[in-house]
Amino acid sequence: MKRSHIVPILWTICLCASCSDDSNIKDLGDPTKCENDTECSGDLKCVDNACIAPGSLGADCKSDDYCQSNRLICHEGKCAIPVAKGGDCTGKHSVCLDLAQCYNGVCSTVIEEDGACVPNSKTDVCSNGLKCIQRKCTKVVEENGECTPGVTNCDTGMTCKNGACTKIDATSCQSDDNCPESQPTCLPNGVCGIYVDRSQECDDETRICKDGLECSFTCFQMSTPDGSCDYDDNIFCPEGYYCSENTCQQVRFDLKRGDSCNTDFRYCEKPFVCENGFCNEYVNETEACDEAEHLFCKGDDLICYNGQCTPVSGDCTKSTDCTEKDSYCCVSDTCGAAKGKCITYDQEVTFDSECKYKTKPGIFEAQIQCRWQPAADDYPKAKAAEMPPLVGHFGNKDNVKTTVVILSTPNRDRSEGNVLRVINAETCKTLESIPGTNGFYKPSWENYPSAADLDGDGFLEIIAATKSRVLQAWKWNPNTQKHEVYWTAKDGSYGNYLVFDVNGDGKPEIVVGTRVLNGQTGATICSGTLY
């Protein structure tokens, strides 16, 4: 008899011609260095030898939207830290904003020849080979280079003599007695020279600025924060301040939406944009907008309509001009910026007053837009819709405005397994299933669920009878992203419930048989035959 051998089979996963052992896969925050993406778990990426989440600093991107934090921007295909003028730009993934360049580790405006400048500034610097001389970035002339007498563009330690930049001939001294008439003062540096006033040529050797002045080819005065300034008179502002209307004003990089701004010394913080003197914010489709609050819609295909960024598909004069699905021409003056634009019906429940059509009696055939089927959730048997649908704006995770609510049931004659469904009216997708705290009472004409905005928050609440025949209201909670019990009526009462403002207080009450319930608490206001 032949002996049989059992050979163990080892499973190995090969990626890109290299084999990987799961034990070497690194998670977020793993201090061990990685070499490529295959060493990182899930959708993490290997960046700078560390496994990071998509959208993190240094991660690949195509636009700012790819970067997770509002503080990051997409620069040259990588999520980067935006650095304002004057900030440190030495970080690997740092990028200077507002046309500033990283110069000597600081985000600065680099000024070319003949451009206006401020002496000794760290954020407004002259390009290489240039120096700030008499408020202009000027090319410095080296020794023996051609120069014009009276023009102070010779390099440090030289002066213009006989049309050429020449080293300063300094005479050593111990007292004024050792100095010639042309340089009568023995200066603190031990050479003969003179003290010069503001706006006069200086060289820090034989022509020293008087007390309170500084030298940068010419003597200038450095003012104080919020002090007076006059660039034409060589009175400059300290670092971090800008001369505006002869006053040193602080340079700001942290301005928020609605703050006044300019391109000189008042800069908007990301993601705000300085336009027309104010920091504006641009938002996406369905987000709130208000031009008075400097909230604008992003892109040419969105307009601010009824406080929401609304997509438009073209100009129009009548609804037949609008060919996009479920769109109409907004023509009334109340349309505001949307007037003469094609917008979708689900952006606003409205009508076109110019759209008139005389109904022709006869047979018509409705077209099915979609069919609802129970989702692959915990309630697959509750698939019968035994009630007229409730249509309106019920809260949901997808922020769909026009939704449908039905009570679905496995068996219309029982109260077991009944589930409220919130459904997308356009696609029939189930947005939420609500099983209730102890189920819902069997559907019949006298106790179908109702809906009303009981608390005035803009969302419809759902009013339904529980399995134990007690009335409940369900409210959308934006924090938990689901419907929760708003209130439960203390007195058992169900059937034939209607919603009215019974007492004229501007808030809806619920009439259930001979009872009147408070629409906000479910408490009984009145019970009897009269109210």
Describe the structure in your own words:
With 531 residues, this protein is mainly beta. The protein folds into five domains: 20-82, no CATH class; 110-248, no CATH class; 251-280, no CATH class; 284-347, no CATH class; 384-527, no CATH class. The strands form 15 sheets. Strands 32, 33, 34, 35 and 36 form a five-stranded antiparallel sheet that branches. A four-stranded antiparallel sheet has the order 28-29-31-30, with no helix packed on it. Strands 37-38-39-40 form a four-stranded antiparallel sheet, with no helix packed on it. Strand 11 and strand 12 (136-139) form a beta hairpin. The radius of gyration is 38 Å and the shape is elongated. The model is unreliable at 1-23 (pLDDT under 50).
- Main sheet makeup: 5 strands, antiparallel
From the spread of the alpha carbons, the general shape counts as elongated
| C-alpha Rg (nearest Å) | 38 Å
The tally of beta strands, per DSSP, is 44
Mean pLDDT: 82
- Total helical elements: 0
The tally of structural domains comes to: 5
Task: Name the poorly predicted regions.
Answer: 1-23
Report, as a whole number of angstroms, the end-to-end distance: 100 Å
> Which percent band covers the strand fraction?
25-35%
Helix content: under 10%
Structural class comes to: mainly beta
Write the layout of secondary structure elements.
Layout: E1 13-15, E2 18-20, E3 45-47, E4 50-52, E5 73-75, E6 78-83, E7 94-96, E8 101-103, E9 106-111, E10 124-126, E11 130-133, E12 136-139, E13 158-161, E14 164-167, E15 185-186, E16 192-196, E17 207-209, E18 214-216, E19 218-222, E20 235-236, E21 241-244, E22 247-250, E23 252-255, E24 266-268, E25 273-275, E26 278-283, E27 295-297, E28 302-305, E29 308-315, E30 327-330, E31 341-344, E32 384-385, E33 390-392, E34 403-409, E35 419-424, E36 430-434, E37 450-452, E38 461-465, E39 471-477, E40 482-488, E41 497-500, E42 509-512, E43 515-518, E44 524-527
Parallel strand pairs: 6-7, 9-10, 16-17, 19-20, 23-24, 26-27
Antiparallel strand pairs: 1-2, 3-4, 5-6, 8-9, 11-12, 13-14, 15-16, 18-19, 21-22, 25-26, 28-29, 29-31, 30-31, 32-34, 33-34, 34-35, 35-36, 37-38, 38-39, 39-40, 41-42, 42-43, 43-44
